């Protein structure tokens, strides 16, 4: 079988880069505003809580996949039969495809708002999708390599996030735990959109050498994401007043304005340029996942199905023409992501646990 060929497998440590690169994307450029709308100065606590919850989800996913070198497509068919399993698989494919559209179109919105206001949407969409096809044609190992470099190359930008500290007032974080459990829960639900991405593990599991030993690396990926988000949130809360933060759509980009370098006046241009390396692995992973599902469910060669998906994504992105539509897509993805993580994954976890116990008795 394809998943047993050693030349197609990746080292376990790479799952840390895959998960982290799939979680951190364009959302980090503006997520503090949305979380602080519910929890104000306690928003950093929400980030930590959400990170802990996603460690639990990682544990669940590994328990779901612990019966062998199967991915979630095979398990759906095994547990629910061909027809119901195909419904689950097609729904997963559409969810991943929606993620591709949201990530790509939102980042292009950033480019148009901050760098090239007159840039036609189809131009960067076409450029990204051509590069995506080139990467996916190389297989999952190539995608994993893109994730590796997509974390390392822009990693230096983390240090620029500390530039606003000298203008910050950390007393803005006080008093701690000043919001109700309901507000914390609403903030956690909103924060879920920024943490989604571990679902790719459901499809990538068979491509891991010694997949059980990759568990610690998966947790390291979520931990790295949590640390990055917490740092950005704390600095945002200290740098902005609550009113200023609510008026700042791209708060991280605005904070970059205080970065001073002798050879460049507007550092945010450099930040956005390097953020292309952050967003590209997001697009490659979600597109790879969607094409993987299509290949196994619809029995179409993956290289042909990728072309079909790319055409669909191109049309969908071009049809989104304003900020309101971009916000709607992000809201829709957040709602669906909430159901995927807080209902679907726990349901599949419980179902797989019961299935194993029943089959062992028979």
From TrEMBL:
InterPro entries in the cross-refs: Spore_GerAB
Pfam families: Spore_permease
Entry's transmembrane regions: 12-31, 43-62, 83-107, 119-136, 143-167, 187-208, 220-240, 269-291, 303-322, 328-351
UniProt-listed GO biological process terms: spore germination
Annotated localization: Membrane
Keyword set includes Transcription: no
GO cellular component: membrane
Membrane topology: Multi-pass membrane protein
Predominant subcellular localization, coarse grouping: membrane
Keywords assigned by UniProt, alphabetized: Germination, Membrane, Transmembrane, Transmembrane helix, Transport
Family that this chain belongs to: Belongs to the amino acid-polyamine-organocation (APC) superfamily. Spore germination protein (SGP) (TC 2.A.3.9) family.
NCBIfam families registered for this protein in UniProt: 2A0309 (TIGR00912)
Name under which the protein is recorded: GerAB/ArcD/ProY family transporter
Species the sequence originates in: Guptibacillus hwajinpoensis
